[in-house]
Amino acid sequence: MSLKLYFHPLASFCWKALIALYENDTPFEPVLVDLMDDASAGAFRKVWPMGKFPVLRDDERDCTVAESTTVVEYLDAHYPGPTRFVPGDTDGGWRTRMWDRVFDNYIQHPMQKVVGDRLRPEGKTDPFGVEQARQELREIYPLIERKLGGRTWLMGEAFTLADCAAAAALFYADTVVPFAATDNRLSAYLDRLMARPAFARVLREAEPYFPMFPVETKPRIARPGP
Q: Which residues sit opposite 3 in a β-bridge?
């Protein structure tokens, strides 16, 4: 098999790549990386010395592709399927890429700040930084609420890279800083993302690892109805 994805089922950035692979039924070999295991981590660093996942290895084209956004764009370019993740027109392309970066930089990163602080040793936590991160999430939610408008997906009726990023980011973000009662479109959007077969599969595969998630409120597979 030409493609291998090095990943961990609990890691949200890995979810973005998995959604793209599952969306188009792209054949690949999953390689689960356990960074706490010296053998697993050592083997992974031989593929990607930086030791951060996801990483896609394409033996047929002799390419190692790091970073979740780049992985999705690589698949779109070299292993295309019915779902195309980046629009071919210039304006549609940059807008989609911009929103992908919004979800990574303004939702994923502060969410990971909140979660990662729980893993710090006693006396080494950063309460001020965590509250800043929580506030960033509270500020970005209304922006996405307005962006969604009456759209099915973030960019319109087509599922794109922006939605792959949104699914991975919003699921955990809603767990650490829940959406406000006024974020109706945002909540409905996350419901649609979770119902999308590719993301639903990602969540099923991640579920056994959710007890490892280091916050009091554990992620859930099904969101409650109204």
A: 58
